[in-house]
From TrEMBL:
The protein's name: Uncharacterized protein
Species of the source: Pleurodeles waltl
Coiled coil: 86-113
Record carries keyword Coiled coil: yes
Domain of life per record: Eukaryota
Keywords, comma-separated and alphabetical: Coiled coil
Length: 143
């Protein structure tokens, strides 16, 4: 009985070693291996297809990103070129505003002067000067 007990313990120790493979997995039936191999191949194809579509999408995203980067660079260049022109435009606008104000003052002054030339003399009748008003005043306010 002691010998069988020792052999049994020895077989247990052997089964606990790292190299131990259970008897059912050591020699599996061939049909199971074929099924497993087929599933692995199908999975591999599915993964390759998905990886291909991901690669295509990534390429498209890279192209779009590159286009956006180029567009932003062009926009920044355009904006940088506009800054000096903006300063010149602002100074030109200020000068034009001053000219407009001066012209408005001159217009108001001219309007006021033109109204002052329209003198109405009380006591003289309208149309009394005749056809040549300047001669009327030279000869003493009458025809």
């Amino acid at each position: 009985m002691g010998r069988t007990k020792g052999k049994h313990l020895e077989s247990i120790r052997a089964s606990m070693s790292e190299n131990y493979v259970p008897p059912t997995l050591a020699n599996p039936p061939m049909y199971k291996l074929d099924v497993i191999l087929k599933e692995i191949q199908e999975s591999r194809l599915a993964i390759e297809q998905r990886l291909g579509s991901i690669t295509t999408e990534l390429g498209t995203l890279k192209d779009d990103h590159r286009k956006l980067v180029d567009r932003v660079k062009r926009t920044e260049t355009d904006i940088t070129a506009l800054v000096p022109g903006k300063k010149e435009s602002e100074s030109a606008i200020q000068q034009l505003q001053k000219q407009v104000e001066a012209l408005q003052e001159r217009i108001e002054d001219a309007e006021g002067r033109s109204r002052s030339n329209n003198i109405c003399i009380i006591g003289l009748m309208e149309g009394m000067e005749g056809e040549m008003p300047h001669n009327t005043w030279r000869h003493g306010c009458g025809p």
